[in-house]
Amino acid sequence: MSNLNILIVEGNLREENQNFSEVGIQTHTESLKDSLSHFNYNLNFDVVNPSSDKNLSLVSAKLLNYDGLIWGGSSLNIYNDTPEIKRQIEFMKECQKKVKNILAICWGMQVAVTAAGGKVKKANNSHIGIANEIMLSKDGLNHPLYKDKDKKFNSPAFNFDEVVTLPSHGVCLASNRINKIQSLYFNVGDTKIWGLQYHPEITYEKMISLIEFRKEKLIKNRKVFENEEQVKNHVSSIKEEITVSNKTQRMVELKNWLDNINNN
Question: For residue 26, which phi and psi values (nearest 5 degrees)?
């Protein structure tokens, strides 16, 4: 099995990652590295943060050297259209021209869709730590992303926004009652983009930590919960999911993406 050169794109602002680190929560890049390393691959990682790094032109010049790119989650909202978000969208456009295999997760999928002409909006409902009863579509059942995946499954997830319009020739691979588009694929030239709205790379334990970290905002600003008792009950339901969740099955999309790169 040959070495694979993987570029990880950090979607969060540097300040948000500092907030995570101060309370002992892994950054999304750290979660990705841990989860990808679970599988038996020789992976060489580079990391870039297009919102914060000043050397994007140097990274862009090396994009052809990567076997694959993974773009992770973020607390940003794409419709806010800040300079930091614009930098991410422009960098994604460059990646879609030069990297043949892109796995775009949650925020990453929203950036990929926007860069390719699709649309993202604030969702009517949210996933807070878990997405229940994700169902594969007919296309999903036959797509290599979901080899050995159950037809219906739960997954770690945390999102307030959703894809509402696919890019040209995009195909929905999975849905649930909260988000019609839970996963998708589309091509830009020779580049294959596989997108997930949920987070196979993040543990439920980390999701619980994120809920505790964001608890006040979830109650007062987002108004997802009325009080701390509701938060406690929701966390208990996620703890129940931990007892029945299978780590390899939860992350099989990551393995399938790596397999697809290695076999091509």
Answer: -60, 145
Nearest CA among 142, 160, 167, 135 for reference residue 224: 160
Domains, the chain, ordered by start:
4-263 (3.40.50.880)
10-56 confidence digits (pLDDT tens) = 999 999 999 999 999 999 999 999 999 998 779 999 999 999 998 89
Cα–Cα dist 182/52, whole Å: 28
pLDDT at 264 over 90: no
How far is residue 15's CA from residue 212's CA, in Å, rounded to a whole number?
18
Spatial separation of the C-alpha atoms in residues 4 and 7, rounded to whole Å: 10
Give pTM, 2 decimals. 0.97
Task: Please state, in angstroms and rounded to a whole number, the distance separating the CA atoms of residues 207 and 91.
Answer: 28
| Three-point CA angle 248, 101, 206, nearest 5° | 40
